[in-house]
Amino acid sequence: MSERDRGGDGVDLTRRSLLQTAGAAAVATSLGGCLSGDESPAAGPNVDEETAYGTCWMCHHACGQKLTVRDGTAVDITGVDGHPRGSAGPGTEGTLCPKGQAELEKLYDPDRITQPYIREDGELREADWDEAFEYTARRLEEFADEHGSEKMLDAASWSTTNVHSYFWGNLYGTPERIGRGRHVCHGGSHVSGDLMGIGTSDIRFVDYQHSDYIIMWGRNVFEAFAGQWEAKQLLDAIDDGATLVTIDPQHTQTAEKADYWLPIEPRTDGALALAMGHVILEEELHDEEFIEEQTYGFDSYREAVEDKTPEWAAEITGIDADLIREIAIGFAEAAPAAGIAMWTGVGQYSEAQKASQNIFALHGLVGNIDRPGGLRMWQPPAMSLNPFAERGIDLPNNAADKTPALRKYDEYAGIPARHLSGIVHDLVPEMVDNGHIMGMFNHYDNPLNDGSTQAWLEAVETMDLVITIDAYWNDLTRNADVVFPEAIQLEKDTLINYAPLWSAYNDRTWVTASKAVHEPMGECKSGYQIYKGIAEEMGWGEYFPWENEAEYSDDMLANIDYSFEEVAAENYVLLDEYGYEQWEDRGFPTATGRFQFDLDQEHEYLQAAMEAGIETGPQWQPPGTWGHETDEEYPLHLYDTRSVFFTFSADQVLDHLTEQYARKHGLEAEDYRGNYLAINPADAEPRDIETGDMVTVETPTGSGELMAYVSERTRPGFATAEFGFGTGTGHEEGTNTMMLHDGQFDPISSQVDRHMPGEVRKNGGD
Ligand SMILES: Nc1nc2c(c(=O)[nH]1)N[C@H]1C(S)=C(S)[C@@H](COP(=O)(O)OP(=O)(O)OC[C@H]3O[C@@H](n4cnc5c(=O)[nH]c(N)nc54)[C@H](O)[C@@H]3O)O[C@H]1N2
Ligand SMILES: Nc1nc2c(c(=O)[nH]1)N[C@H]1C(S)=C(S)[C@@H](COP(=O)(O)OP(=O)(O)OC[C@H]3O[C@@H](n4cnc5c(=O)[nH]c(N)nc54)[C@H](O)[C@@H]3O)O[C@H]1N2
Ligand code: SF4
Ligand SMILES: [Mo]
């Protein structure tokens, strides 16, 4: 296992082969009709050809795009060299991953919604913009009169403009919001990282360039990267001799490249981390000075790991005790040039808050925080996220005196998460039943994908008012009262709506922007124009003085003395330099100003911990403390995963991507284009299941049909399927794994728990 095998399946993974599984030419071919139609003349000497930039928004990580536009038609798309997110750093090639390349297919996709719709006499019908704005404003006013605006749920997600939060919070006045990080993405580690002083997820990235020892702890970075820079720099690091460890029940594409694969028993990460800490202290490999000067609560840590020997953890995790020792020593000896990358793998189970706390404690123990090769504390550029304030607009805060329902009503008094979270995704259907949530606003978001889908489907039908800004039809948009068609990133001026952090430049702040490359299709408008239109009808025109996104962006950039035009002309600009060990001057952003092993200083957490009956310091919580366990009837452990071809449920609608996904599994000859259930041969054989068979997967609360993919990729007993397919999504083929979900969530963070016990049988069998 410790033998380095970097060939994986005979495929030599390189920067290009990993990220560019299909060239732009292949994408252009797949666009077929679009590009050879009447308006797309063949290239020739008289053809008017331009180069333009884009800011890829296919997975919202903003890699730079360079486009060739011929007589108004975008014909080629590629990366931008040296781009902070799309390259490996200065002087290196910029590329696009398969999703990024597919944005051209999305631009010309005939299935996109390109017209506003409103509900009349129970049916959705096409409307013009004036009608749609007027109708929306009237319904919003009626909703506020009848229910109170606090019963409107803001579920906006990947909008390129942050104006939605000002619209729904400050102006309409709702305190109810489902955010991505804490509620549906990685709630457990969001809470721990925040309270320990290393950020929610913003700085959860290793300083790959200088690292000698990298642990991918429940992360599959070669399929799910946060911008291509991450996968590219990891490849460079291992080429330069860094040790790569993956801790994952799946033998992922990342495990294929690793020196060590630890096929951990799911949900036992907390035990492994405590045992690693035990070894590091026993071997005296901890950083005494850092602990003394920069941390809080070390005594509770020492006490917690005292009896957590590798032999103890081996029983629980299924990982050999000697291997645990080897990894712990390897990591600590390489520190501070050693880092742990973590995101959803230790984020999406009910015991994840404590498990991630135990893992993050290892950073404090070896003192690798904000030191070269360790866990970098990324800095944002000094851009303003509040253009209203920049303009001197006196924006009211109409949500300020409203308490979220979770904290207001007795029905939720038993839920510890209410202290730390405004909402629980999986409780929304119940809140709708209780009349505490009566409407919802969505923008580039589909909650039917995220958990408890069956209950959510009913909730959406019960709600009094559902408004969406989307690009495709699915069970959410079809059930909405208003559907606004949004221009995609290539059709609008784009400055990302948050201050960008992690990138290939580990010592520079930066921004990236691009101008519209193409006219919006049909009647599509940008998100900003949609909010402005509704606001004007609501009588809030004074708060929207900017004509368009570019003007709004100018105010976001004013602080750094750039205009939107100037950044867009370059695609990206590098700004201030910053150094390591920033805690030296600033301390850590915690109640004690130190890195916190123990979270007893945080009042809200203390309340939640007391109610949940857990400790504030590091602690071992066995699987099943809150989540489910497998049993005789449901012996398989089910989990959903990501593929490099898809972002959540957003782009399974693009045929070129589902085609590549089928090809990667060797199943392109089948008619089926849904997701696959990956299952180990040891589990498949007794069930008579072979690759390509249709199977039914069942949990105590639901079932679905999909195609089997028998593979050593998953450890025995663990079966996975990519999410974002099936009922509720825009690509109905396959199974929405969350249709099998029963509402289990982490009682501390409120994060959806996506581990489920299940059984699988071959269709047509017994
Ligand atoms: N089952 C399962 N669910 C998960 C996860 C998981 O691991 N398993 N992971 C979670 C994580 S980590 C996160 S961060 C969340 C994010 O998940 P969400 O925020 O829910 O995002 P998506 O599912 O991508 O939302 C897709 C919606 O955007 C629409 N859309 C596509 N293109 C456009 C466009 O150009 N403009 C507009 N306006 N709309 C568009 C689609 O039609 C669809 O309605 O998902 C979570 N959901
Ligand atoms: N292509 C693509 N890229 C993306 C996204 C996308 O949807 N598609 N989404 C983006 C977003 S918002 C996010 S949050 C990130 C997520 O990035 P990652 O967290 O790297 O996402 P996954 O690929 O789901 O990897 C999670 C891994 O955890 C493993 N795992 C499951 N259970 C356990 C467990 O109990 N313990 C351990 N140790 N491991 C476990 C799974 O087998 C899986 O390999 O990706 C980002 N990048
Ligand atoms: S990683 Fe891929 S999909 Fe995501 S922004 Fe970059 S090119 Fe686009
Ligand atoms: Mo996420």
Automatic annotation (TrEMBL):
CDD domains referenced in this protein's UniProt entry, alphabetically: MopB_CT (cd02775)
InterPro entries listed in its UniProt record: Asp_de-COase-like_dom_sf, MoPterin_dinucl-bd_dom, Mopterin_OxRdtase, Mopterin_OxRdtase_4Fe-4S_dom, Prok_Mopterin_Oxidored, TAT_signal
Annotated family: Belongs to the prokaryotic molybdopterin-containing oxidoreductase family.
Organism: Halobiforma nitratireducens JCM 10879
GO molecular function terms noted in the UniProt entry: iron-sulfur cluster binding; metal ion binding; molybdopterin cofactor binding; oxidoreductase activity
Full protein name: Molybdopterin oxidoreductase
Amino acid composition bias (Basic and acidic residues), ranges on this chain: 752-766
Domain called 4Fe-4S Mo/W bis-MGD-type: residue spans: 49-111
